[in-house]
Amino acid sequence: MSQTKEIPYKIYLDESELPKQWYNLRADMKKKPAPLLNPGTGKPMTLDELSVVFCRELAKQELDNDTKFIDIPEEIYQFYKMYRPAPLVRAYFLERALGTPAKIYYKFEGNNTSGSHKLNSAIAQAYYAKKQGLKGVTTETGAGQWGTALSMACAFLDMDCQVYMVKVSYEQKPFRREVMRTYGAKVTPSPSNTTNVGRKILEEFPGTGGSLGCAISEAVEAAVSQEGYRYVLGSVLNQVLLHQSVIGLEAKAALDKYGVKPDIIIGCAGGGSNLGGLIAPFMGEKLRGEADYRIIAVEPASCPSFTRGTYAYDFCDTGAVCPLAKMYTLGSTFMPSPNHAGGLRYHGMSSTLSELYDQGMMEARSVEQTSVFAAAEQFARVEGILPAPESSHAIRVAIDEALKCKETGEEKTILFGLTGTGYFDMVAYEKYNNGEMSDYIPTDEDIAKSLAKLPKVPGEN
Amino acid sequence: MSQTKEIPYKIYLDESELPKQWYNLRADMKKKPAPLLNPGTGKPMTLDELSVVFCRELAKQELDNDTKFIDIPEEIYQFYKMYRPAPLVRAYFLERALGTPAKIYYKFEGNNTSGSHKLNSAIAQAYYAKKQGLKGVTTETGAGQWGTALSMACAFLDMDCQVYMVKVSYEQKPFRREVMRTYGAKVTPSPSNTTNVGRKILEEFPGTGGSLGCAISEAVEAAVSQEGYRYVLGSVLNQVLLHQSVIGLEAKAALDKYGVKPDIIIGCAGGGSNLGGLIAPFMGEKLRGEADYRIIAVEPASCPSFTRGTYAYDFCDTGAVCPLAKMYTLGSTFMPSPNHAGGLRYHGMSSTLSELYDQGMMEARSVEQTSVFAAAEQFARVEGILPAPESSHAIRVAIDEALKCKETGEEKTILFGLTGTGYFDMVAYEKYNNGEMSDYIPTDEDIAKSLAKLPKVPGEN
Fold first, then answer.
1. In this structure, is residue B41 part of a structural domain?
2. Hey, are the CB atoms on B182 and A433 less than 8 Å from each other?
């Protein structure tokens, strides 16, 4: 790409350039993502049905496939100013270390205490819950980024926050728990005996370290069984991708300022919220035929929903209390190996991204965790940021693509999402530092076993 | 102060506005800080003597009381761009929460993986060591911020880094250790049996959790007993304050842009590097009679060198292997209570700051740790940054001063240094969250006991 102005190491937008609207990618999709279904009737979830679990404004956003831009409420906008606009960084040092002609940029979302992009949606969800007059919200958290983000948002708005934390994370990350407690949240290891579904899972799988799917089930049950509470979710949902579009809007505005157009856009994908947010405006251009981009979703080889899953209706949670979502899934009973330390352990994938992937609008790649941590270490040493294991999946593929450019001599422009920092992931880094990290890839039988339990959609054959 | 332009939440200088020179505050002091003395002869340390321990360029900077501005070498300048300019934040949310008419600003130095301002001097010291052709450096670290910063700098320059980490921190902060290891450093808990001085201290105080003073002694011994190594120190020294002047220069440039002049400048003080850096250009104006500022050093009540120490020559380290420095000191054998969780546990204070304090150019205040963590919690909840315990000392006094303004109605402008984040300090936060934090203040006898062991300067009565 031809560039006229010299590109600084970090591009900060002015505060006045912070996007005032979220961009709803679904509005530009000709074939919309498949709707959430009521597992009892097999019919699309209605606004009223969704409003039992989610607060009403969020349920509306979940169902809205048409409104292209949605105003960011003033209170959320003010909160965003605490940590946004987030920097777009030109990875000069990484380029030099790799000796690549590629130009590498990353959008860094880790400059806030939650340590990731999750705060973008947490404040939105807490705000709408508060506006509806609710007392508090319940949620699940895996690595703890989402729980921390929600705790921060709730503390700011003076709302109650109840977090079900995947037990293995709760034990491996006591400090994450303490950050949430500092922000006033109540944190319970999941599965717990505080819910029916938790007790049932504990009976069936005694000693389990839990999973995101279990924790979601518990948090949903806690929400519907308490007056004045709703459940909120940090990824997967359409509404979350909507809020996260602020990442891509800022990234695109920063690149546009310098006349830079990426050739390849790379993001890690667990439930899909960061990737969906980062690519939103670029994918919009692609859908409208205005531009072309290679877009790559990166997932762990130990939890490969895009690359080895099936595109089908499945439960969002292990306990099967949520609506059915059509997505690339490994089956809601799939549990990644306990060896897996790198986050992104959700069994499914955002319906929006799943549909786009199915349409061939993006690629997916799975990477093994030892190579992910090697990329993390290399990045940390030259770019000065110790990345989250999740983000490091994107780093791995960004480095791989840059090294391909070194071979071919192509001066491609690569943009990737650096979703967060790894300061609470040092148990995983310690494993890597000690050479004790292993790669585990599920067998075809492992995956077939959980896919065999996919739900039957009522009314379908 | 009258302000014309609307002040954004965060003021980012442009990359081109990053200071190109450090400012040497000593050049503007009529009465210079007292020189380091050779403990054997009682005479000022010469460049040659200092060059045995420090690399030569740093030894020069240590002794240079006259050069007002020193060029930042190009390589350091490029490294600074990784995480600088650092933001100056207007604490709108904190002001609102306090209901104060005061205007509060903080210079935030935590947006880098070392989690603090320490990186500003670490890269400078590692750079000069590299330039001198050395293989590596040794150092001590307490809370781990300095050790992490030095590890990052050494990884970037491909130098060996050996860190002696105060044992109690090593045990309470295993994750800090892993960050340093990820950056390739060798980390040893101090006191250790790898040095003569370590073995001696272990004999005298078996089971001790260590102290900064002990760790310094070990690191110095390790440096002088290995070919191609020098010792580097993260605070206290003149050279370190010089490098840290980048904090104050940026803060002042950002304030000047909006025509803002602070009435009160507040910084936490352990060895004095952050405070010395933050106040440098402001103190310069004050020394030259161009402006007046109230400057407040905040220290823990459990380690009160300014407020309860003596201005005298003392050893910089417990093992008495370093030169003598004239400073406000509690005595080099002083050990803060093991209850003390809030950092800033050095027995002495920068000679430059000590001299300025003695001249009445600044005030000092000591605060108890429970109130420090209460301030930290309040700040985290409204400003979205979980602060380092060290930084929270400054937050405490900034809040106190803002609340005074609320009583008097004065619209004072307060600037404080937010030196870093508390992500690796969650053991301390957990204590606070559980209501298990206690305040311990040393008795007059405690202090008298360690002050009784102040060294006699040869040739003095």
1. no
2. yes
Give the SS3 label for residue A442.
Answer: coil
A90, A8 in Cβ contact below 8 A? Answer: yes
Task: Indicate the angle between helix axes A119-131 and A56-63, nearest 10 degrees.
Answer: 130
CA dihedral for A48, A231, A228, A81, sign (positive or negative): negative
- Note the pTM of the prediction, 2 decimals: 0.95
Torsion angle of C-alpha atoms B235, B80, B383, A74, degrees rounded to 10 = 170
Domain, as residue range, for A367: 10-17+73-115+238-451
Question: Considering the domain boundaries, does residue A193 fall inside one?
Answer: no
Please give the tally of structural domains in chain A: 1
Q: Give, for all 461 residues of chain B, the pLDDT tens digit.
A: 444 578 999 999 999 999 999 999 999 999 999 999 999 999 999 999 999 888 999 999 999 999 999 999 999 999 999 999 999 999 999 999 999 999 999 999 999 999 999 999 999 999 999 999 999 999 999 888 999 999 999 999 999 999 999 998 888 788 999 999 999 999 999 999 999 999 999 999 998 888 887 898 999 999 999 999 999 999 999 999 999 999 999 999 999 999 999 999 999 999 999 999 999 999 999 999 999 999 999 999 999 999 999 999 999 877 777 899 999 999 998 988 877 877 788 899 999 999 999 999 999 999 999 999 999 999 999 999 999 999 999 999 999 999 999 999 999 999 999 999 999 999 899 999 999 998 989 999 999 999 999 999 988 76
CA end-to-end distance (rounded Å), chain B: 51
Strands A186-190 and A160-166: parallel
Question: Which ipTM score applies to this complex?
Answer: 0.94
Q: Which of B299, B291, B285, B287 is nearest to B263 (CA)?
A: B291
Q: Establish if A424 touches chain B: CB-CB under 8 angstroms.
A: yes
Cα(B150)–Cα(B169) distance, integer angstroms: 17
Give the number of other CB atoms < 10 A from CB of residue B407.
Answer: 8
Residues of chain A with Cβ-Cβ distance to B115 below 8 Å are 423
Among A92, A93, A96, A113, the strongest candidate for a mutation testing the B interface, having the largest count of B CBs within 10 A, is: A113
Give the chain A residue nearest B89 (alpha carbons): A82
Q: Give the dihedral of Cα atoms B35, B349, B285, B80; nearest 10 deg.
A: 100
Give the CATH number of the domain where residue A312 resides. 3.40.50.1100
Would you say residue B30 lies in a domain?
no
Report d(CA A111, CA A114) in Å as an integer.
Answer: 8
Identify whether B154 is part of a domain: no
Q: Which two tokens stand for residue A224?
A: 């519907």
